[in-house]
From TrEMBL:
InterPro entries membership: Homeodomain-like_sf, RNaseH_sf, Tc1-like_DDE_dom, Transposase_5, Transposase_Tc1-like
UniProt feature, compositional bias: Basic and acidic residues: 42-54
GO terms, biological process: DNA integration; DNA transposition
Top-level taxon in the UniProt lineage: Eukaryota
GO molecular function: DNA binding
Residue ranges of the region described as Disordered: 42-64
Name of the protein described by the UniProt record: Tc1-like transposase DDE domain-containing protein
Annotated Transposase Tc1-like domain residues: 66-136
The Tc1-like transposase DDE domain, residue ranges: 183-291
Organism: Salmo trutta
Lineage: Eukaryota, Metazoa, Chordata, Craniata, Vertebrata
């Protein structure tokens, strides 16, 4: 029989105190007569109608086992709960369930989440990142305003980002309604683009046919776009990463002959470049369009259009985060940051 709610208990107590018979009270709140009698007896003993405190289900692990489970998963963050459950005996059973392990870890403040995928950083990479951050952490907002952040990115027509979820019943996991088909190598085609942003300006979004090598970077990007932009803004500095197309001798000689100032950049440091967040913003804007692009031509047009729709204030906010990015690298001793 279902438990009597608290408001009905108070109502039944008022009826009893008003002189009604036990049977009439039970009929009024639709419960058994013995329930009303126990309710009256509990009120006489404790002065309240709430249930007695209950011990609940006994724990199947001891405090020492709880600490052991926590230590195991702090030492190996990728250890599965099922593995720990198999080797941990319970107080009443030969082993405990994986859910018990998850409950103990949750009590210890450990929750399961997707690992953030980043590039491999060696000790040398960490040292270079730390030294760069130490040097540029003293730069003011006015200094960062004079940097043109550039990068290229490839957008795929179809892509699985790992964020899609589907609700399915038992044994329906592999049915057609619960299966999402996509090509892991970017089926349907892709578009390579290049762009540059600064505190107050932005370049055109350049659609690149094929891959970027040193010759194409020099002839299709630097000569028609970067050099005219920097000539119109002579106080600005070019930033690009250490891709082979950027560090080739022909590219370095080309920039040196035209007196283009290049900002030194540490290797394996996409988290320091604010334009990386703009690519994510641009991708989400294209995916959120009322009519998503259906082919490569429409994808290229959508990217160019959405690039122009991004407000300059959004770009400025990302550029202004450079001091915080340097501080984050220093706090991480050259390691990965939240950016």
């Amino acid at each position: 029989m279902p438990r009597v709610p608290a408001h009905l208990r108070e109502r039944a107590l008022g009826m009893l105190q008003g002189g009604m018979r036990t049977a009439d009270v039970a009929r009024a709140i639709n419960c058994n007569v013995r329930t009303v009698r126990r309710l009256r007896q509990r009120y006489r003993e404790t002065g309240r109608t709430a249930d007695h405190p209950r011990s609940g289900r006994p724990r199947v692990t001891t405090p020492a086992q709880d600490r052991y489970i926590r230590t195991l998963h702090l030492r190996d963050r990728y250890r599965m709960a099922t593995t720990t459950a198999r080797v941990t005996p319970g107080t009443h059973n030969p082993s405990i369930s994986a859910q018990i392990v998850r409950n103990r870890l949750r009590e210890a403040g450990l929750r399961v989440c997707r690992p953030d995928v980043r590039q491999v950083l060696t000790r040398h990479h960490g040292q270079q990142r730390r030294l760069w951050a130490q040097t540029h952490s003293r730069w003011t907002r006015q200094d960062w305003q004079k940097v043109l952040f550039t990068d290229d990115w490839r957008f795929c027509l179809t892509r699985g980002d790992g964020r899609i979820r589907v609700y399915c019943r038992r044994n329906e996991h592999y049915t057609e309604a619960c299966t999402l088909e996509w090509d892991r190598f970017g089926g349907g085609g892709s578009v390579m683009v290049w762009g540059g942003v600064s505190q107050h300006h932005r370049t055109e979004l350049v659609v690149i046919a094929g891959n970027v090598n040193a010759v194409r970077y020099r002839e299709d990007i630097l000569l028609p776009h970067v050099v005219p932009f920097l000539q119109a803004h002579p106080d600005m500095t070019l930033q690009h990463d250490n891709a082979t197309s950027h560090t080739a001798r022909s590219v370095r000689d080309f920039l040196q002959d035209r007196n283009v100032s290049v900002l030194p950049w540490p290797a394996k440091s996409p988290d320091l470049n604010p334009i990386e967040h703009i690519w994510d913003l641009l991708n989400r804007r294209v995916r959120a369009r009322a009519i998503p692009p259906r082919n490569v031509r429409e994808l290229a047009g959508s990217l160019v259009e959405e690039w122009g729709n991004i407000s300059q204030q959004e770009l400025a906010n990302l550029v202004q985060s450079m001091r915080r990015r340097c501080t984050a690298v220093l706090n991480a001793a050259g390691g990965h940051t939240r950016y």
